[in-house]
Amino acid sequence: MLRRSKLIVLSLSFLLNITVSQNLKCKNNNDAGNVDWVILYKGPTQANGKVLLSTAPGNWENGAAALTEPRGHSFAGSLTGVVTNEANIKFLAYNNVPPAVPNVQTKSNSKGVIIVSTTPGENEGRWIVHTVPGFPAAKTGYNWPAAENAKGHLLICMTIAETQINAIGWSLDTTKIILQIIQK
User: Phi/psi of residue 116, each to 5°?
Assistant: First the structure.
């Protein structure tokens, strides 16, 4: 238990020592602008889902593009730097069903990504939590898992401040996450 806590603290300390950049806000419904948070609910068999934005709370919109598309919707844009190579972006991904790792046994059902930038001078990043097994696969391009099209999913992106990393680390340690990748 103590070793696990140290690993998570060290991993998040790596992220905490990075100054994050303002361009890392969550992306809006069509990936054309920034928002503080976005929630996407994709019902079973739905392609686009419904989106709720911080700029219009209480107003669910149809998703701008299918989640299988590599651009044109909030989560394709919000995962920039994880699914593509970006020199100034670092991330920590966790998933109880990591991509290409069969038969993982865990007590956690946690999936997400913390994304920060090494560009000096700002204090924002993204924390994405979701329900999609094996997603995203790092540095392989945006690729929604075809097996998940028939299932319902929830994806939440929150713009975070560097000062929130310790609280996030405590939360992740409590849920016994499996670190998928730390991109340095």
Answer: -135, 170
Q: Taking a C-beta distance cutoff of 8 angstroms, is the pair 168, 128 a contact?
A: no
Tokens of 171: 């939360």
Q: Residue 164 carries which DSSP code?
A: G
Helical packing angle, 165-174 and 2-16, nearest 10°: 150
Find tokens 């990748």 and name the residue.
181
More confident residue, 167 or 138: 167
Question: Sheet of 179-183: strands edge to edge?
Answer: 61-62, 50-53, 37-42, 153-160, 125-130, 111-117, 89-95, 179-183
pLDDT digits (tens, 9 = 90+) for 71-130: 899 998 888 878 887 778 888 888 887 776 777 767 678 889 998 877 777 678 899 999
Q: What is the DSSP string of 108-129?
A: ---EEEEEEE--TTB--EEEEE
Structural domain harbouring 41: 2-183
